[in-house]
Amino acid sequence: MARLENKVAVVTGSGSGIGAAIAKRFAEEGAKVVLADVSDKGVTQVKQAIEQAGGTAEFIIGDISKEENAKKINDFAVEKFGKLDILVNNAGYAGPSDPAEQFNSEEFDKIFKVNAYGTFYMVKHAVSHMKENKGGSIINVASNSIMTRTDYPGYAGSKGAVRTMSYTFSNILAKDKIRVNTLIPGTTRTPMVQAIFDDEELAKKYIDTIPLGEVVEPEDLANGALYLASDEARRVTGTELVVDAGMSL
Looking at the domain 8-190+218-241, which fold is it? Predict the structure, then answer.
């Protein structure tokens, strides 16, 4: 039996990278997946790939930094597939790595709007649907920038908020059998950072700093998310799963 058979999952930021890998992995394991992203640039291809592999997926476009869109995405999943079992809050925005005294306030607002507010809105509007199912699994994607040195204070701050919200929600929602856990990636080989790995010398310098000596791949995060979403983790809530090849050690 597939590990997510008869489950319905929403994955935000699923047009590429980690989100796309999670969506494909969930579909492989039997979930009906709603792909949500801010544009249709990648989700149409991800949907096609899932369907060609025999899976089921629909997509919806929406900016989760606006609450009405978060509600629309969650409602869409129920309209299409009848329920909502799993929510993966993967969508994120890094912003610039400008020095603190030069950091643009509008950029800071955008980072928090997408990463922190967006996560909150998505959870808020998923909960009522999950209560109807008498349970569910919420996975909030943070970042190991909250555990290591970083040049992205806005991003790290917003992901710190995600981490704290996850822990708080896990306590609040436990009585409803809704599990809330945090997935913490390190730098992962995605289009956003591919330039590092395109430069052989730069890539070697970077990989030499990683304790396991290997780059994290999107599929590594997908496997972690699969465990947290599955019934194998039915008694796991309020935890953090770090997938960073030891970068935060």
Answer: Rossmann fold (3.40.50)
